[in-house]
Structures are given as structure tokens and as C-alpha cells.
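Subject: Discoidin domain-containing protein structure
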Amino acid sequence: MEPAAPVLSRAGWTATASDEETARGDNRAANVLDGKAETIWHSRWSESAAALPHSLVIDMHRTEVVSALLYQPRADGPNGRIGEYAIHLSADGQNWGAAVASGTLADDATTKTLSFAARGTRYVRLTATSEAGKRGPWSSAAEIQLLGDPGLPASVVELPTTGWTASASDEETAQADNRAANVLDGDADTLWHSRWSGGATPLPHSVTIDMHRTQTVSALTYQPRKSGGGPNGRIGAYSVATSLDGVSFGAPVAGGVWKDDDTVKSTTFTRPTPARFVRLTATTEAGNRGPWSSAAEIRLSSPADPSVSGAWDRVTGFPLVPVATTVLPNNKLLAWSAYAIDRFGGSNGYTQTAIMDLGTGQVTQRRVDNTGHDMFCPGIAMLSDGRVLVTGGSNASRASIYDPRTDTWSATGQMNTPRGYQAMTLLSNGEAFVLGGSWSGARGDKDGEVWSPATGKWRKLPGVPAKDTLTADPAGPYRADNHQWLHATSRGRVLHLGPSKQLNWIDTTGNGTITPAGTRADSPDAMNGNAVSYDIGKLLTLGGATAYENANATRRAYAVDLGDGIGDGIRPVSKRTGDMGYARSFSNSVVLPDGKVAVFGGQSYPVPFSDATSVMTPEIWDPATGTFTKLASMAVPRNYHSVANLLPDGRIFSGGGGLCGDCATNHSDGAVFTPPYLLNPDGTRKPRPAFTSTPPARIANGAALPVTTDKPVTAFSLVRAGAATHSVDNDQRRIPLTFRQTGGTSYELKVPDDPGVALPGTYMLFALDPAGVPSVAKMITIG
């Protein structure tokens, strides 16, 4: 794996610290820049130790685009390993603003990558607020490095190209239609190429975009020609300059060297710049094949309008890669990886977990040994009482339960069939159903089975063979039965609606049955896509690819309507809705309180453990129009082994990716996204309604639920707490509630009678005002 961003040269840099030990040891701040792991900075420890917090400030003595800090702990002992931390940036060393990253580091000697949104800065400050092992009031570091522009611009939105024109220093028109205008036509099969007929024009070559109006621009995206047309002309070394009049171009606002491949490249400007003209200049050909330059498409991005595109909070570091996450009833987020914090393998019988307090942002780490279960690549189901059932994975037969009420893990009955990458869902009767999972154990024949909460044991379903649900993946059942999309309905029934193009009704009573339910309209197989229940009996499927990896992802989305006969085995009606702006596989999708669906991350060409072809721009789908709108881009790629969850405050957690050991694509972090429904154009929060009554902790299906709010509201919805892993979250579903007004701001809500509609379990209850702004949710349990 290649790094997502270059390591910046430390030539000319200096380091200072809030305090340092020099009396009894040469533990100066300057040691973090000397290239020697055996020398360290240490907070003052002689005489009396300096109290926490401690901080290090790196002065680069120039403005650079920075996207991460690499922290290498001391190698000669654990004392001073940084635990909780925060990172601030400054242009002048005086004004620091809000933290761009914070979190908790694992108590080990590995080098940590602390990521944040790429931006131009001169000063970077790392502040330690705790020692990782609580051994004393100390902080230390062996080496500090910074990563530069990852080519993945953050907190920007792609500008529409309507009315734009493009010109070039030279172009080929005699023997091919390689005009500059082709970089704006939206067709990757057409391209601009420098003149090559009759004698090539020597480098450098440039393309100038005229937006025909002044706009603030902060990033440029370059798509090379497709590999099928040959590699010639891929841009290597480049620079970007801007102009207001097309005549006077200032100093470059970006520059660097792009890799010699056909992946889409981006470059982040050192600062947002007002411009009408943006010029990309190529000074070398990436493979040194000749004096040529080419481009299939060029796009420009601008800082996002929060009221339209939402906004990202700081990146929060985790002491592990959050491969699986679930929202708990106590306003916390449970996450886990595998036996290790950054890698998987074997069947080690324990799991690294972490819990994030959503109120404070604090993250705590814990190794779970007592269940004998390595829970990497599991199935997950949220039980009716708020507990979390986790099955299979690296320890392929085991099953474990987490109880948030007591913060304890316990073992439950082992599955009859060893599984990994299986799919799970709770059933309307409170049991849990599992299907597929050939990643662990013998390949194939991963037929259905059901877990009983009364006995803690599993019952085989010989009438539900996994072979009827497979995709046509070239790797066979090993990949073809993975990560299935399951939607529980009435009377213990389940709609299997993907990722195979074939849909099926599954009945879990007795020995079980499986019945074909048609196809998902004209959709091919869509492995590593996902499905989201956004309304009663209505689901949206998004993205995926015809194979688990190394196949082009799709932009397609489909609406699947179960009609009025939910659970009666009728054939669902599927139709293609508006396409996403980007093809995605390994993405994650979340339903919002207003019924819209947000999708995050993914790759246009899925490859596990890679950040190539990352889609950095989230999108939101509106069921009223069937269209997608682009949102503010992410700071960190979220691909294979990433997650996303709706939070009780109406925001969204997006995190993870990687878990590949000593690789450059481990993302031990996450960030919270604030959707546009909560924000004004200047980024301030909109006033939101609030509940002034406390609903009961548990309520039965069919019950009336009285509530009061502080202002008039026009809608209420329930969103079931979700559990995400490997792009799938079969637990989440949204239920709009019918209600009647009983007073000025008093209402009586009707909980659906059918437990196949309001599935048992923990829900977030939201109230929405006339502008669609949601309240902070009240947590209730139904059933």
C-alpha cells in the first residue's frame, strides 16, 4: 500500500515545547526532528514533574498543505506515551482556533497517524492531555513527521461546470479530436492532449479553465486518460495558478507530482482563492514516455455552503480501526476491530473494543477476553432489549452479547455453522436470523439458522439454503454469499433483497422456506453496495459491483417497494431512481429522520485495503425527487472496513477503513458530519425543536405515546439504532409516525401495531419542525 499523502521534508523546521527535560537528560523538543528514534523529547521530569497537559509546536517556516501528524513514541520504555491528544494549526503561531483532530491513542510503541482535513498552515501543535498508561504526568515523543496534500480535498464541494470554457497552450486537432474543451464534457472517454502530430510541442503544457465569473476555489481534480487508451500524457509534476483577468497569474496555489496511473487525482490549494481563471500546468510526463500531456476531465471545488452541503467536525482518533460500530441506548458508540487494533488473522479468542461517549467525545479502549471470541468480520443484530448480538468472524462458530446496561460481554450459544462475513437481522418475534458467511469455515452451504433469546441456542433452517441467494462472483461462494441485505417483516419473515440481483422471501418458521421474489429491476449483482429502509415497506439500494473486488462499481440506485402486503410474500416492485454522482462500492449509507438517505465513502473500483479511487464526496438522496445532492467532502477516505451510523442528535458518525497491519491505509479515526438540515449558511446551528416531556423507556407495539415539545412541530419519526460493518447495516430503519395534536404543543403518537414494521428494539424518536429541522432524539425501546 502506498501512503495516501507524501511525508513532508523537515528541512528548516524547528520544534519547541511547553516544557522539556534538559537538566538530567537531553530530552529537548528538537529531538523529534533529528531523524533518530533513540533520542526523544520528554516533558520535564527532574526535580518536580511538569503537570499535564504538555505540547509540542512544529514551525515549518513556510506554508504547506498538511493532512496528518505522525507520532512515533519512544522505543526504550512506555513512560510518556501520549494517550489523549489534540492537534491545532496556526498561520502565525499565535491564533490557533479549534482543534482539527483529537482522540485517544493505544498504549503501544507503534507509530500513530493522526489525520485531519487538509489545509495550508505554518505551525502544527500537538497537545497531550493524558499519558496512555496512566503511569504519571509525563509526555514523550521520539519523532514527529507531517503528511502533506493527500490529493483528497476536504470540506469542499465540486462546482457545476455550466457555462465554463477551457483553452490550452496547445492541443491536438489535426489527427484526433483532442481539444481542451473535452476536459469539461463529462465524458471520460474524450480527452485533451498536447499537440503530437507533425512534431510534438515540448513541455510544459497547460490547460486554463475560464469559469466566466469569479468564484472561490480551493481544490482541483484531475482525471487522467483511461488505461485502455494508453498511458501517454499522464501528468507527473504539475502546478496550479489562478487569475482574476486571465492575464496576470499569481504564484502557484498548489503543486506536486502525481503517480503514473489512471486513478483520479486531486490537489488542495494552500488557501481558498477568489478566481475566474484556473490554470493547470504540466511540467513532466508521469512515466517520462515523451513530451506529452493529456487529461480526460478537470474539475474545480469550492468551500462548502453548510446549509446546502453540511459540515464536518474535527477528526477523532480511536485506539483501533473501527471496523464495526453500533449506537447504544446510553448515548455511546461501541466499536471494535479484531484481536489487534490494526490487523486481523487467526482465531485468537479475544477482541479489541472501544467506546466513544457521544456527549464528551472521549474514547476508552478495552480488550474483551471472557467470551473467547475474535469478533472480526462478524454478523451483528440489535436485540429487542438493546443488547448487541455478535456472531462468527475469526472465531467462526462463536457468538457474544454486549449489554450496555452493565457494560459487560458474555458468551451465548455457538452457531451450528461456522461463518464470517455473514448477514444478520432481528426478527419480528425477537429472534435473530443469520445467513451466508463463507469467509470463515468451509466454503459454501452457509444455510440459514435462528437464535432464540429464551434459550440462547441456534436452530437450523434446512429450508433456507444459502445457494439461492448467491451472486455470480468469480470467486464462488467464498465471496458470493457475503454481506447480504436483509429486511425483517411480519410474522418472522425476511426479504432478502441483495446484493444478488435476485430477491427472495424467507420464512423462518419451522424448517424455513425461501421463495423467489423477482429481480431488483434491471440491476446486476451489487456486492458491497447496501440497502436502507427509509420508510415503511420502502428501501433504497445503492452502489456495489458485480464482484467483491476488482470490478467497476456502479452509480445506480434502486427504490424497492414492498407495497401494502408487508410480509405477505408479494413480489416487491423495484425501479431505478436517480443515479448517484459517483460510482461506489464499500460505501456506507444512513437514513435520516426526514427520510432522506446519506451515503459516505467507497471506491469506484473496489480493492480491499486500498485508498485508490476513493470517493471523497458524500451524497444525499431525496425520496421526494429521487435525486442525489453532493455534500461537503471528507478529510479521510472511508472504504473497506469503514462504517457510518446515525447519532441521536441527528448527526452522522463516519469512520474506519483499513485494518491491514503495517500498511499506509489504516484509518484509526472517525468524524461526525452535520447534515444541512441543522445549519445556516454561515455554519451556525439552526434553532431546533426539543421534547419537553420524557417518554417512557419502553412502549408496546400499537400503543399511544403522548409527548410535548417546546414549539410546534409537523412530523415525528422513529429511527432504529443501527449496527454497521462491511457496508451493511440491516438494523437501521425509519418509521414515520402518525399523530394527532392534543394541545398547543402536545401530541399523541401512534406506534405501529405490527412488530414487522416497528421491529422490537431501541429507537431514536425525533420531532421535526416545519422547516424539517429535527430535535435531539429521545431513546425508547419498542416491544
